[in-house]
Amino acid sequence: MLTASVAMSASVTLSWTDPTACVDGTAIGSPTCPAITAHRVYCGNASGVYGTPVSLGTVLTYSWTVNTAQTLYCAVTASNGGGESGKSNEATKVVTITPVPTRAPVCSFQ
Question: CB neighbours of 76 closer than 8 A, spacing ≥ 6?
């Protein structure tokens, strides 16, 4: 009996833009508003309910693999010498998983 496994996953990429000013309106990178040094990505399966954040450097995208169909809700924060910002707007993504069959087996007579 031959069986074939099926790959069931999807790649997801979240991207964002950095703010240009601190909460007091001072431009980021000025003496009183240090440059952004890190980001945190918060994601979960319900709006506003997030798991443990993923800590990143100064990148503006984060990619990962999802193995089940689901709806993702994500927000991002930025940090500088003054601390961590509030969460960004929430981005929502419905992830669908489309089965991809493996290649056909090759058989022969011995």
Answer: 14, 16, 39, 40, 41, 42, 87, 88
